[in-house]
Amino acid sequence: MAQPPLGPDEGEFEWPEGAVPADSGLPRVTRASALEADDDRAAGAGPPAPEREPRDEAERAREICLSLLAVRPRTRAELATALARRGISPEVAVRVLERYDEVGIIDDAAFAHAWVSSRHHSRGLARRALASELRQRGVDADTAGAALDDLDPDTEAATARALVDRKLRVARGAPEAVFRRLVGMLARKGYGPGLAIRVVKDAMAAQSAEAAEFADGVDADALADLESGDRAE
């Protein structure tokens, strides 16, 4: 008995047009009718899909919040801003966010503690810079302060020293220029001028005699000039 011929793809067969055996039990479908069916599906023909109930505003607000939270944690203020930009009314936004507060979906205190830990360890940011970032994200002063208390002065000083040591290994230039760059780097990360000066002096003193001699000559009077020069750069 002859086998049905293979189609254009290996291992896939199709009956020649009009050659479906009468006793096969299969419908007689021609290539033309199959193409017409494809066109009908693409055009949306066929039984209409059931219409979805229009979403209410609260449902839209919840979807917006959850989609944003799926990307990364957000503060309540960040979510409120996003809802306002998407046209959600203040009344609905407050109601949805209050509910998310109650069930712990949003938690500004937990966000602040996690933010301080993550940004300090990954970027070496100090309290001043971290406080600014939390404020920009709408965390209130009391909540931010509690999170910043996680970062004690000894930890902050140790992180500053590690940052300076890493930079010193590849630093080039005269000791004065290196000193200014390192103090400026710490200032941009939120370290106070007193700590920055002390840490850089100690690190350079351990590097070489030339660097130590320069560092020992830096006094408090030079601090204002160094700080103002770094801010202008």
From TrEMBL:
<feature type="domain" description="RecX first three-helical">
    <location>
        <begin position="61"/>
        <end position="99"/>
    </location>
</feature>
<dbReference type="InterPro" id="IPR053926">
    <property type="entry name" value="RecX_HTH_1st"/>
</dbReference>
<dbReference type="Pfam" id="PF21982">
    <property type="entry name" value="RecX_HTH1"/>
</dbReference>
<feature type="compositionally biased region" description="Basic and acidic residues">
    <location>
        <begin position="50"/>
        <end position="59"/>
    </location>
</feature>
<feature type="domain" description="RecX second three-helical">
    <location>
        <begin position="107"/>
        <end position="148"/>
    </location>
</feature>
<dbReference type="GO" id="GO:0006282">
    <property type="term" value="P:regulation of DNA repair"/>
</dbReference>
<feature type="region of interest" description="Disordered">
    <location>
        <begin position="1"/>
        <end position="59"/>
    </location>
</feature>
<dbReference type="GO" id="GO:0005737">
    <property type="term" value="C:cytoplasm"/>
</dbReference>
<dbReference type="InterPro" id="IPR003783">
    <property type="entry name" value="Regulatory_RecX"/>
</dbReference>
<comment type="similarity">
    <text>Belongs to the RecX family.</text>
</comment>
<protein>
    <recommendedName>
        <fullName>Regulatory protein RecX</fullName>
    </recommendedName>
</protein>
<keyword id="KW-0963">Cytoplasm</keyword>
<dbReference type="InterPro" id="IPR036388">
    <property type="entry name" value="WH-like_DNA-bd_sf"/>
</dbReference>
<dbReference type="InterPro" id="IPR053924">
    <property type="entry name" value="RecX_HTH_2nd"/>
</dbReference>
<dbReference type="Pfam" id="PF02631">
    <property type="entry name" value="RecX_HTH2"/>
</dbReference>
<comment type="function">
    <text>Modulates RecA activity.</text>
</comment>
